[in-house]
């Protein structure tokens, strides 16, 4: 059986990591990997996480399974963080949540759920619309589950802005049996987010067309703030009959390797969401059966303590401010180096990523001539920039323009 297999292409990010590690250049810069880094290039464990972990060590009495839904307290607290405590849908008992192995696990659970749900629709086809561009793994995740992936316009590479009119026009043609994936905040890979007014218009189209929104929220708190970044999620949940939310605690809690996320579904009423939840639990049982518990326990401890939650919000603000500061620092340094091209769009975007807006040949030159690593699309991880390398980075960019 194995002898008939054809090798799959290597993941471009992982290949980039290998090249970076092998590079001996003293000023090499990694702008490819999507994890937060501090000024010295380290991805730290948050202090609030360390305290929660010690509490877990002191109080945990068993490693037995919690159950396929994960911790009910974690699910409730994360649901309140995402949807808001006073959200009408939450108060009406129309939302159900399962813990998942990271945000990617949440997306795969959602994908399998969509396939099963589509069997009861008129079209019997599972179709999801994703933004152009979107996170590289979205397409593979959904296609692997048997969902057909289509795209809607989103980012204009020439003007470095949203194709909002084109986006609205495309979504206005989406049928009620389809699913539309939206990024809650900190759009990956463009950094271009919908404004609140634009969210309102997309929600209106969602109501008119009747499709199911799936919102991917991997960076709550990395854009403007925890509440501000959840505007679209909260307004959508209060406005539609059906919705899916996939969330991750990897970035905002720094719990990358703990693999903790959640998949939430919203139904028309309690009876409807309970039926849908039974399908969701069946999907979970068929994929991984029981979710990881350790990371969820840490988040549960933090969000359940006023003191630890405030410490988390403070630490999250430090990370967010550093990202936003890096954006401004790079733009100002490019101006200082005499670059005439307008890079101000970088300072206007949000989250960990931006497109630098250079072509693949220039990306290759940065790698070969200056040991600066990014993917061919010129998407850069803003967290890879710091006081120690921004001068060299800007100088190198100036040389290849």
Automatic annotation (TrEMBL):
<comment type="subunit">
    <text>Homodimer.</text>
</comment>
<dbReference type="InterPro" id="IPR004839">
    <property type="entry name" value="Aminotransferase_I/II_large"/>
</dbReference>
<dbReference type="InterPro" id="IPR015422">
    <property type="entry name" value="PyrdxlP-dep_Trfase_small"/>
</dbReference>
<dbReference type="InterPro" id="IPR004838">
    <property type="entry name" value="NHTrfase_class1_PyrdxlP-BS"/>
</dbReference>
<keyword id="KW-0808">Transferase</keyword>
<dbReference type="InterPro" id="IPR015424">
    <property type="entry name" value="PyrdxlP-dep_Trfase"/>
</dbReference>
<feature type="domain" description="Aminotransferase class I/classII large">
    <location>
        <begin position="27"/>
        <end position="397"/>
    </location>
</feature>
<dbReference type="GO" id="GO:0004069">
    <property type="term" value="F:L-aspartate:2-oxoglutarate aminotransferase activity"/>
</dbReference>
<dbReference type="InterPro" id="IPR015421">
    <property type="entry name" value="PyrdxlP-dep_Trfase_major"/>
</dbReference>
<dbReference type="GO" id="GO:0005829">
    <property type="term" value="C:cytosol"/>
</dbReference>
<dbReference type="GO" id="GO:0033585">
    <property type="term" value="P:L-phenylalanine biosynthetic process from chorismate via phenylpyruvate"/>
</dbReference>
<dbReference type="GO" id="GO:0004838">
    <property type="term" value="F:L-tyrosine-2-oxoglutarate transaminase activity"/>
</dbReference>
<dbReference type="InterPro" id="IPR000796">
    <property type="entry name" value="Asp_trans"/>
</dbReference>
<dbReference type="Pfam" id="PF00155">
    <property type="entry name" value="Aminotran_1_2"/>
</dbReference>
<dbReference type="GO" id="GO:0042802">
    <property type="term" value="F:identical protein binding"/>
</dbReference>
<protein>
    <recommendedName>
        <fullName>Aminotransferase</fullName>
        <ecNumber>2.6.1.-</ecNumber>
    </recommendedName>
</protein>
<comment type="similarity">
    <text>Belongs to the class-I pyridoxal-phosphate-dependent aminotransferase family.</text>
</comment>
<dbReference type="GO" id="GO:0030170">
    <property type="term" value="F:pyridoxal phosphate binding"/>
</dbReference>
<keyword id="KW-0663">Pyridoxal phosphate</keyword>
<keyword id="KW-0032">Aminotransferase</keyword>
